[in-house]
């Protein structure tokens, strides 16, 4: 009886170890990104603050700056005007023994203005008007590989106090 209980226990332990040792995911060497979210859905123009959040994977794990490098590795494009924001992502440490990494990057964004077609002055107080914008986003790893380009969901801007 004790041998059968010990045998069942050993089999259960062996099976649980087998399922616990899941292989690390394999990602392409080029970074891949996908849209996550904004921290808010509506922002007060010029004074509001929000975070832009993007998911990423990278097969060789070389995302973010290295040492004192200040080369930009993320481009955020305002699709209304095609103005670009160049951002330096911090170093992302490897996860475990495999080189592939995944995670989220959060970018603090502020000073976003309304750009209402037909209204000549940017960032003006326009009563009862809302604007919307989307961003196109790319990242680059330390090897110089660019990710796919994604577009954010719309962010709504309140153009009045």
Explain how this protein is built.
The chain is mainly beta and about 160 residues long. It has one helix and ten strands, in the order αββββββββββ. The strands form three sheets. Strands 5-4-8-9 form a four-stranded antiparallel β-sheet, with no helix packed on it. The chain has a three-stranded antiparallel β-sheet with strand order 1-3-6, with no helix packed on it. Strands 2-10-7 form a three-stranded mixed β-sheet, with no helix packed on it. Strand 4 (about 75-80) and strand 5 (about 85) form a beta hairpin. The protein is elongated and about 80 Å long.
Give the SSE map:
Layout: H1 2-20, E1 32-38, E2 42-44, E3 49-58, E4 74-78, E5 84-87, E6 101-110, E7 130-133, E8 135-139, E9 150-151, E10 155-158
Parallel strand pairs: 2-10
Antiparallel strand pairs: 1-3, 3-6, 4-5, 4-8, 7-10, 8-9
Most strands sheet: 4 strands, antiparallel
Annotation, overall tally of beta strands: 10
Strand order of the largest sheet: 5-4-8-9
The geometry reads as: elongated
- The low-confidence runs, each spanning 5 or more residues with pLDDT under 50, are none
Q: Cα-atom Rg, whole angstroms?
A: 23 Å
- End-to-end Cα distance: 79 Å
User: Could you report the average pLDDT, rounded to the nearest whole number?
Assistant: 85
Keywords summarizing the entry:
elongated, 12% helix, four-stranded antiparallel sheet, single chain, mainly beta, 34% strand, three-stranded antiparallel sheet, 161 residues
């Amino acid at each position: 009886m004790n041998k059968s209980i010990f045998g069942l226990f050993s089999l259960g332990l062996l099976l649980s170890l087998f399922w616990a040792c899941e292989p690390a995911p394999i990602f392409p060497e080029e970074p891949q990104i996908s849209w996550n979210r904004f921290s808010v859905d509506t922002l007060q123009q010029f004074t509001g603050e929000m975070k832009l959040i993007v998911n990423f994977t990278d097969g060789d794990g070389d995302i973010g700056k290295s040492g004192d490098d200040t080369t930009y590795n993320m481009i955020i494009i305002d699709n209304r005007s095609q103005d670009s924001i160049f951002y330096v992502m911090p170093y992302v440490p490897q996860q475990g023994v495999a080189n592939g990494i995944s995670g989220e990057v959060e970018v603090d964004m502020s000073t976003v203005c309304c750009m209402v077609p037909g209204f000549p002055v940017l960032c003006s107080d326009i009563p009862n008007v809302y604007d919307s914008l989307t961003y196109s986003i790319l990242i680059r790893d330390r090897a110089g590989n660019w990710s796919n380009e994604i577009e954010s969901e719309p962010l709504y801007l309140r153009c009045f106090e």
